[in-house]
Design brief:
The complex is a heterotrimer of chains A (488), B (499) and C (93). Chain B has 499 residues and is an alpha+beta fold. Chain B has 16 helices and 16 strands. With 93 residues, chain C is of the alpha+beta class. Chain C is flat. Classes of the chains: A alpha/beta (488), B alpha+beta (499), C alpha+beta (93). Strand 9 of chain B pairs antiparallel with strand 3 of chain C, so a sheet runs across the interface. The structure holds magnesium ion and zinc ion.
Amino acid sequence: MFEYLELSELRNLLDTKQISSVELTKYFLHRIKSLDEKYNSFVTVTEDVALAQAAQADEFLASPGENPALCGIPYAAKDLFCTKGVRTTASSKILDNYVPPYDATVITKLKEQKSVLLGKTNLDQFAHGSSTETSAYGPSKNPWDTSRIPGGSSGGSTAALAAGLCPWALATETGGSIRLPASLCGVSGWKPTYGRVSRYGCIAMASSLDSMGAVAYSVKDLIILANVLSGQDPKDSTTGHKTANFTVNSDIKGLRIGIPREYFIEGMEAGVKAKIEEAIKEMEKLGAVIKEVSVPHTRYGSLVYAIVCPAEIASNLSRYDGIRYGLSSKEAKSLYEVYAKTRDAGFGDEAKRRILTGTYVLSAGYYDAYYKRAQKIRRLLVNEFEEVFKEVDVLAAPSSPNVAVAIGEAASNPLFGYIADQLNIPSSLAGLPAVSVPCGFAAPSDGGSTHMPVGLQFMGPQWGEQAVFNAGLAYQSVTDWHKQRPKA
Amino acid sequence: MDEVKDGYKPVIGLEIHVQLKTKSKMFGPAPMGEAEEANVNIDEIVTGEPGVLPVVNKEAVRLGVMAGLALNCTIPEFSKFDRKHYFYPDLPKGYQISQYDEPIAQKGYVNVTMPDGRIKRVGITRAHLEEDAGKNVHPEGLPYSLVDYNRAGAPLLEIVTDPDLETAEEARLFLEELQRIVRYVGASDADMEKGSMRCEPNISVRKPGEEGLPKYKVEVKNINSFRFAEAAINYEIPRQIEILEQGGMPKQVTMGWNEKESVTVEQRSKEEANDYRYFPDPDLPVLQFTPEYLDDLRSRMPELPAAKRVRFAEEYGLKPADIDTLINSKTLTYYFEDVVSELREWQTSDDAAKKLDIQKLISKAANWCLQDFSAALNSANLKDPYESRVSPENFAELIVMIENGTISGSAAKTVFKVMFEKGGEPDNIMQDLGLAQVSDEGAIEAIIDQVLAENAKAVADYKAGAEKSFGFLVGQTMKALKGQGNPGKVNELLRKKLL
Amino acid sequence: MLTLDEVKKLGSLARIELSSEELEQMQKDLSAILDYVEELKSVDVSGLEVLSQVTGLVNVQRQDEPKLCDFRDDIFANAPEMKDGYYKVKAIL
Ligand SMILES: [Mg+2]
Ligand SMILES: [Zn+2]
């Protein structure tokens, strides 16, 4: 009844008192309780908090004056955002019992909006992964086919959304973690310009890449969310001073869209390729100027990422030591063992792999050959993007070279994430904004019978959100792929 | 102790940490300052909760750069923060935010005045900003340690010298000068006992005939006074020479100073070599120092101790030892100079004061600053002389009163005590206490005439050559003056009358 | 190929106790990752400056204003063990 409604529809229902926030919240809590067993998209459901926040929202709604855009509307947050008094695990064992003493800046903003937190969604442990399979709480399932991954790391958020368990969800991306699961679950996702949204209070993965964004049912909704979530934060030195006042504008006549040759890689699924080509034709019909372009070093992106990202991860995960919070080994007999046993028991394989890789590339004798060299090539990638955005306004490309794979495939390959996200990582390394929108369905190459969602992404120059929003809006104004829902 | 065996040459460099004088921490708003209990000055940033981010304290940067300029360093256009990784309970994030290859200050020097007046130039390799760690407490005999993060995140400036020092005395004199410099620019209290200044000497010894730096160095930690720094160096040098004499090479280790036994003790050598895995902190944008910013700081630079030392000798003719003591307190030098200008004011406006020697007045003022005034400030626990009740104007007036004989030296001490405790002008206090010295010639002459008339025998004895009788007559005169006669005047007038 | 000893050293540097099976698995995985990035060695990086941040921001600083934390108890509530207001740890040798 209320699932799958867009934010403007929910706003209207609440503002015209056709439904109260408490009723809406109970509705979603009930859906989560009865359906999430199938999807495992939530780590924690915050029923009490949600009902209290909804009651507060109803009070606010009853008083005169304009209501904030998200007032009374429920949402889910990836379990990477610190929520004061609400357990925050990063889907890890080491933070299994961690109750943050403070709120992330975006959570504070949503409290100011009088939004309603339904719960915390599953993710790859510490966001390390592209499938949610590295979660200490088991993988989430793709609502289009529960034997398949939802993608990751924000897979809990996109699965919950695709299953109609929340109207929108907070997500984060370091190298594809919004675009990939949005694409595989058939929802819309916004990966902001690095520094557009505060990182304060979001558990860090790779600090120079982490971007906090959102997933929703349409680009229109993403614009509403972007206007709320964006902005300089005095607690995050890397947020920019740009003001965000994004408008809804689907006129793309004359918009120059570049099709980067390197994004149509060998091994890309035929069905995906066909859908992307169709979508590009659609954009051309809308008046966009399509131009093939080249970003020559694209294929090095994932390699650079495979060094830079673990380096920052190894550093950021040093604080989990069993002394001030989180898991603390009871078997340890010495201080050294407190560290070593706690971290052995508390981190999963992927986290350990990345910590060790990061430790290696930063250690004496290897720093120059790996870390330093990688950051130089990162500069090369940034320069190339700068060049290409002189020629075109946005780039269009697949969000993933393939549709969702079966659960279990990722686990056997230590390189899975780097390959799955090779089309997202280069722009992430450059801190660029993007949206991913559903653009049809395709048969998986493993012979599965269900046709799975395909995602199209628009990437823009730094701070160029408006252009990618315009492109996404235009596309969704003439297609209804974003309105397709999985069978219950 | 600074005797070194023939041909051996100690090579000493220092690493000094000074805590910058800010109200909040280096990368977050948690308060600085002393706390009675553990873990009071903390917040989510200090304890390194998941998700927190650092934001640079502007004042800490300013103080660091001021200190860098005062140490004659080059301030680069750009400077960045790096993460230094190691695991220790007092280090909440598993890394310390520090500066690795682009510190805020590079290549400077400090000129140190040696006791013989010679100037020793000590090179400054670099100075960088970083955050402090917490404190580990080890209850004796118990199988656990306790961690207090009150100090964690405090802003520090780490200053590294070139290995230019050769003796423990040089090291101490350098440290004292450095302490004055950072205090003068307001960068730090630099109190070794309180831990706001900490020093780690790196000591090695060059063998006879050897060139360049020795292939090892010994770092000594846990030193919390200048005296211990000197003692530790003086302990290490002969220890190392003995090993070298026997053909060995001292181990490259970190030692701790054991203050009970007065020895250095090898600290548990770590199984693995340190590998700090430095890399630029992605959470912190770079610092940029524009010429305008630096010019502004330079324009606010106070006169530094070395310059003051030279000027005070030239301008006031003070003794080197007095200057050394005086410049230990920047505000006391300001106060002293205010007194001097008040003295000059007196000289231009007061006829009696005109006759006085300004040089004598200044010397007297310096003595009073260093002795009675400093002692009074100390016992009242006042750091700033301007916070006392004695204004430089009243201070100067008292000095003039002493010098022109209005008040005796010992009475002046009594008056000063009252000035310090209650405030007020010295002449009023003197009147109130009845301590005025009679210098009026007419008044003294009248008394002398009376005394001479009453003591005809003594006058006759004196005239017959008994010098002793003169003393008697002075005594009688002073007695009649109730002890407040100006002794010089009494002597002079008595002699004249007895001619 | 990384040696087992090298992986062990990394484990101790990163304070992660690794079982012998884990050591062998990590040896394989890390080696695969290093092979994967090997190609970067052929990229010409001459004249390129290291890029560790993309924002281009400089001098982002806060005023020196202290603020007392009013949720210290919530911070302490997560501690595995405390004593007299201190965090308690195994003896530091
Ligand atoms: Mg050091
Ligand atoms: Zn240091």
